[in-house]
Design brief:
This protein is an alpha+beta fold and about 120 residues long. Helix content is about 25%, strand content about 20%. The protein contains 3 helices and 5 strands; from the N terminus they run H-E-E-E-H-H-E-E. A 5-stranded antiparallel sheet has the order 1-2-3-5-4, with helices on one face. The longest helix has 17 residues.
């Protein structure tokens, strides 16, 4: 059921503590942790504690939690001191966009130049 933890979901297992992660922030509704394959000096994933397969379904079902993810992304950037120089928030939606874990999540990237368009 949407919003419920999924037994086969990597990020649900991080939320439950069954899989370790380098957590940098946690709230009642979100967890932020360092990416295991960072693409920038700051590369943190911010995930909702509820399970939705992508950002669009999260926003449609629980807009306040989607807003919480964005707010925490800004807090992560401030904590890593990239808020002054600039950072990127990326939501990959679907395999064609590079999504590999189908639990909504935001990538917070910063600490280096981020060219446009992304590669």
């Amino acid at each position: 059921m949407a919003g419920e933890p999924q037994t086969d979901c990597l990020f649900c297992k991080i939320v439950s503590g069954d899989i370790p992660a380098t957590v940098v922030r946690e709230t009642d509704t979100t967890v932020a942790f360092r990416d295991i394959n960072p693409q920038a000096p700051t590369h943190v994933l911010v995930i909702p504690k509820v399970h939705y397969p992508d950002a669009a379904s999260l926003a449609a079902a629980e807009p306040q939690v989607a807003a919480d993810v964005l707010r925490e992304a800004a807090e992560v950037a401030a904590g890593d001191k990239v808020d002054g120089t600039g950072y990127r928030i990326v939501f990959n939606t679907g395999s064609g966009a590079g999504q590999t874990v189908f639990h909504a999540h935001a990538h917070v990237l910063g600490g280096r130049g981020l060219n446009w368009p992304p590669g």
